[in-house]
């Protein structure tokens, strides 16, 4: 334990000359405030989590403190006595070692131990240190010994490290009360108490800041010569820089304001919302229902407090990992037409059902008077629902809730240009009615519309329902029998998989309860030109635009099919997949749902065409020999059925 000063000597025994102005520098000013002839500069900078410099932070909000270091040889006013024989050069080559402590007002700020210390991206440390943080207002032994193996020895200023702080008590914390670096051998000063053992002495605080004292004598020599905790430069004769006129320190002052909030709203949609310059005059409606394979967007909207605009947002979305899965975050790079914020952070924890996403923009006119669309988070359903008519018509299953659990924003004042971190509101979450995919009925409902489903369809083809739940599964048009219209629905959805974001075509009214008689009871087909209920399509923003070549059965048949087919989905039938399999947003045009089913079927030349259609949308490269044999046998059964006109 180092001997402490007497309490009567209240000020730090280090004769540091803080020549900085008390207050806040303009946003554009980045140069050091009062450096003169020092060889090294170490300055701190406060930023939001995406790196925007800030002057204010709301109580309870997190922010970063970044340390920048620079070899100042070659700068005006910096004198170097060049001695090439002893490897002392006048040009900057960068730092080799940098160790320091930080003090701050313990009432205003708190060190966030969960974040720890992150080294700059270009730093190659010999060993990373664990800082000492057991004393309020003090972070001990920050820094690294840097071995630069890239050949770039940092001749200019470089980010050394960063750590995260949390704003506490509101107030103005100027340069001396703010967050400040010191030499590593400037150690904590304790208040002597003759009635206590030295290890029980209290730290000497002034205005909430722990005071320091400089080691002297043998202790100083041990800290600077026999240890590594000092400053040094490449090509500077292996000299240890330990004097105040050799190292320039610059701290940071901040205002901690009372809690203030940005207004966050969230909408859950299947189709991306269009904006005007990144903003909307009104918020879209939430989706009410989806099918079990749907992908959907969590759209995050934000509006800054009055007099500010919103330049950064960080949100955490929580979901039940059994029901949903994170796919990707969508920002300006993915949709430059409607989004003005870029994604700079996306940390997903699918095991626990959480994703934190950060969005940032250079624009300073968003979210001031209208809601800005900050970004989209794409999720997909993992729910598995059975197509079971045993107890009557299908019913939906209510999903778990998806919600924002944490939000924060960085705003810029439109009058003062001050940048501040503020809290964000967390609107109530939403759940959805989820319906089964009608066409996935075989193989334990394997989340693929494939050959196994086709084989089961063959067995039911030509039958009437008559209360049989197994036949009812294949009566896709809900007309009481399994026929050509049902087959046309099946073909248009054949090859689809839960692993790929795609469009499914359903009978008008589904997803939804079909127990109410449909409007057109006299026909299983739509009349030409009749609009299709929007619920008949599980609408998705990423349709498939390519059509595979048909399998030729004969010249006449194949020509007819080629001319009359709707655009069929050609998707992977594999039930496994990842977000990297997804097509990009807005990469194509969805199948036209207004083409009537009866017109579609009527254009088929003969029954062989239907078999050709099914085989054309099946990727046989993914099929086993057994599956191909099953498909061929099933096709023969359908053709045999069609030979008997009474069964159609």
TrEMBL record:
One of its GO terms (biological process) is polysaccharide catabolic process. InterPro entries: Dockerin_dom_sf, EF_Hand_1_Ca_BS, EF_hand_dom. Residues 472-497 form the EF-hand domain. Residues 572-597 are annotated as: Disordered. GO terms for molecular function: calcium ion binding. This is EF-hand domain-containing protein. It comes from Bremerella cremea.
């Amino acid at each position: 334990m180092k001997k402490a000063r007497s309490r009567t000597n209240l000020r730090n025994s280090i004769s540091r000359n803080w020549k900085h102005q008390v207050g806040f520098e303009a946003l554009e000013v980045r140069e050091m405030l009062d450096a003169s002839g020092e060889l090294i500069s170490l300055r701190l900078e406060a930023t939001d989590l995406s790196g925007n410099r800030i002057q204010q932070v709301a109580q309870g909000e997190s922010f970063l403190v970044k340390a920048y270091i620079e070899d100042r040889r070659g700068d005006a006013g910096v004198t170097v006595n060049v001695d090439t024989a002893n490897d002392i050069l006048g040009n900057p080559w960068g730092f080799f070692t940098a160790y320091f402590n930080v003090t701050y007002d313990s009432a205003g700020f708190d060190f966030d131990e969960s974040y720890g210390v992150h080294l700059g991206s270009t730093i190659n440390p010999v060993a990373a240190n664990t800082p000492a943080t057991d004393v309020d207002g003090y972070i001990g032994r920050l820094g690294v010994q840097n071995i630069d193996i890239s050949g770039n020895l940092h001749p200019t200023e470089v980010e050394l490290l960063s750590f995260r702080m949390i704003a506490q008590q509101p107030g103005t914390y100027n340069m001396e009360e703010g967050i400040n670096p010191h030499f590593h051998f400037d150690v904590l000063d304790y208040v002597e108490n003759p009635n206590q053992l030295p290890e029980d002495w209290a730290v000497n605080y002034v205005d909430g800041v722990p005071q320091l004292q400089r080691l002297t004598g043998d202790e100083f020599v041990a800290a600077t010569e026999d240890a590594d905790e000092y400053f040094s430069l490449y090509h500077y004769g292996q000299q240890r820089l330990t004097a105040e006129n050799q190292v320039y320190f610059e701290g940071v002052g901040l205002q901690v304001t009372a809690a203030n909030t940005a207004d966050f709203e969230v909408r859950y949609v299947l189709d991306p919302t269009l904006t005007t310059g990144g903003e909307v005059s009104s918020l879209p409606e939430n989706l009410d229902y989806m099918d079990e394979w749907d992908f959907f967007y969590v759209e995050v909207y934000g509006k800054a407090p009055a007099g500010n605009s919103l330049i950064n947002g960080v949100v955490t979305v929580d979901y039940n990992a059994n029901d949903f899965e994170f796919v990707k975050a969508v920002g300006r790079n993915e949709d430059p037409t409607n989004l003005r914020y870029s994604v700079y952070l996306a940390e997903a924890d699918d095991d626990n059902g959480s994703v934190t996403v950060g969005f940032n923009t250079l624009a300073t006119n968003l979210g001031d008077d209208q809601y800005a669309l900050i970004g989209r988070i794409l999720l997909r359903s993992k729910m598995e629902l059975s197509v079971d008519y045993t107890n009557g018509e299908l019913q939906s299953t209510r999903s778990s809730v998806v919600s924002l659990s944490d939000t924060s924003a960085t705003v810029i004042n439109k009058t003062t240009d001050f940048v501040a971190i503020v809290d964000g509101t967390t609107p109530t979450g939403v759940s959805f009615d989820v319906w089964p995919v009608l066409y996935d009925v075989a193989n334990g409902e394997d989340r693929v519309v494939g050959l196994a489903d086709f084989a089961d369809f063959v067995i039911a083809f030509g039958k009437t329902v008559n209360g049989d739940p197994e036949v009812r599964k294949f009566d896709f048009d809900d007309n009481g029998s399994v026929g050509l219209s049902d087959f046309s629905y099946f073909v248009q959805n054949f090859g689809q998989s839960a692993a790929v974001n795609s469009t499914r075509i359903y009978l008008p009214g589904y997803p939804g309860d079909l127990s109410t008689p449909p409007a057109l009871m006299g026909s299983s087909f739509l009349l030409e030109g009749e609009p299709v209920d929007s619920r008949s399509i599980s609408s998705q923003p990423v349709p498939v635009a390519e059509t595979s070549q048909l399998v030729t059965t004969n010249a006449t048949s194949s020509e007819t099919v080629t001319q009359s087919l709707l655009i069929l989905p050609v998707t992977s039938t594999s039930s496994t997949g990842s977000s990297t399999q997804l097509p990009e947003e807005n990469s194509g045009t969805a199948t036209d749902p207004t083409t009537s089913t009866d017109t579609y079927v009527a254009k088929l030349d003969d029954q062989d065409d239907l078999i050709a259609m099914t085989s054309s949308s099946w990727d046989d490269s993914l099929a086993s020999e057994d599956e191909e044999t099953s498909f061929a046998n099933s096709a023969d059964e359908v053709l045999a059925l069609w030979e008997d006109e009474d069964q159609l």
